[in-house]
Write a structure and sequence with these properties.
single chain; alpha/beta; two-stranded antiparallel ribbon; 7 helices; globular
């Protein structure tokens, strides 16, 4: 059976190690939280076939869901190359938003042309709690842009992130997500079927480490 685009991207992320599932040997986040998943979507830039699938999917998503887009704006730094390639496919202007204003020159935070009133789509590689991408949305709105929404490569689907996006009145459309990656991983033998429930418990409440002990 042919995989959907979301499943193809999930499989590709697993194959190149951009998304790595290790429920029996958890990673430790900077916050100290134990995590069964590691994500580094920057690796997609070094995988031409997967990169092509992703960039075309971003372009197709913008066309389908945000046809009024005047420009694509990448998040710094991981969203920048994806915004650039997708904007090239769409023949749209592209720019990006820094994490903070420069301390020299014109002190820009937003790089690239952005006229007031332009309809902007934010391109992000990964959404977890949503904090960083909402800062980008806020910066664009403050600059006079109308933010149509976000296109991200992967989202955890965490409740905190969903709530933050709703509070900011911004829509995110992800090419693939946590549930799809976990299901594809189980189907492909990357993890044991019993791990699916453990991983889902982590996603639902990262602070609760009860998932670390396998169910009996």
């Amino acid at each position: 059976m042919r995989l959907s685009v979301s499943e193809q991207i999930a499989r590709g992320l697993l194959d190149i190690g951009a998304v790595f599932l290790r429920p029996d040997e958890p990673f430790t986040w900077a916050s100290g939280i134990k995590s069964p998943i590691y994500c580094d979507n920057r690796l997609t830039l070094s995988a031409p076939d997967l990169r092509t699938t992703i960039e075309q999917a971003i372009a197709d998503t913008v066309t389908a869901h945000y046809p009024q887009a005047d420009c694509l704006m990448g998040t710094s730094t991981a969203g920048i190359p994806h915004a650039a390639i997708a904007a090239h496919l769409l023949r749209l202007p592209m720019g990006y938003v820094r994490s903070g204003s420069k301390d020299h020159g014109r002190h820009n935070r937003i790089e690239g042309r952005l006229d007031k009133g332009w309809n902007a789509v934010v391109i992000e590689d990964l959404i977890s709690t949503g904090g960083s991408v909402i800062e980008v949305v806020d910066a664009l709105r403050e600059a006079g842009a109308n933010v149509l929404g976000i296109v991200s490569i992967f989202t955890y689907g965490m409740e905190k992130g969903i709530a933050r996006l709703a509070e900011a009145h911004v829509t995110n459309i992800s090419l693939t997500d946590f549930d799809t990656v976990v299901r594809v991983a189980a189907e492909g033998g990357d993890i044991k079927p019993a791990d699916v429930e453990r991983l889902t418990r982590f996603r639902d409440n990262p602070a609760d480490e009860s998932w670390i002990i396998p169910s009996t």
